[in-house]
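Below is our example:
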Amino acid sequence: MRALAVEDDARIAADLAAALERAGFRVETCGDGQEAWFLGDTEDYDLIVLDLGLPGMDGLTVLKRWRAAGREMPVLVLTARGAWQERVEGIEAGADDYLPKPFRMEELIARARALVRRAAGRGGAVQEAGALTLDTNRMTVAVRGVPVAITALEYRLLAYLALHRSRVVPPTELLEHLYGDDDAREANALEAVVARLRRKLGAGVIGTRRGFGYFLEEADA
């Protein structure tokens, strides 16, 4: 899953990126409102963590522009301004959740995971599809109750398929959400990850609809 952390304090931005990476996100960062607006308007993210006090363009204006343009990605707003009126203003501008500074990183991660699940129409932390069970809080995977050890990249792929398991996900979409701008996005690399997962998980977990993409099998083969 792909996240954008918008924060002009370099230390906080680094902490955010590290925590989100540990939670299974592929994270990009920026510290300027103009750049944030452009990225959110032109790239697809599963989550944006947005500070309101930004140089160039304030976060509230950035958020309003995204929503006016029809951009519907989940946005978790951060701000040092904790007055309830400002929280209401942020939510009315289109924020999906609101966290005042200072905050505990554990709470931010819990809220981030919940936002991503809700955006995909999946309320619970445990996602099940056929033989596969994926716990998005513990970041664990099991097949027919047997735990399977996977890499961070493999987890991101499975988590994305699990959250979008009602449809076939095109390879281009998977590449967009698994890798950041600095990574090579090649179909061969994606095929290699899927092949490794199939060896680990066994047959009948990840399906392919040729010419369309990948999906999780809903029946236990």
Notes: The mean pLDDT is 90. The chain has two domains: 2-120, 126-216. The helical segments are 10-22, 33-42, 59-68, 84-93, 105-119, 152-163, 171-178, 187-201.
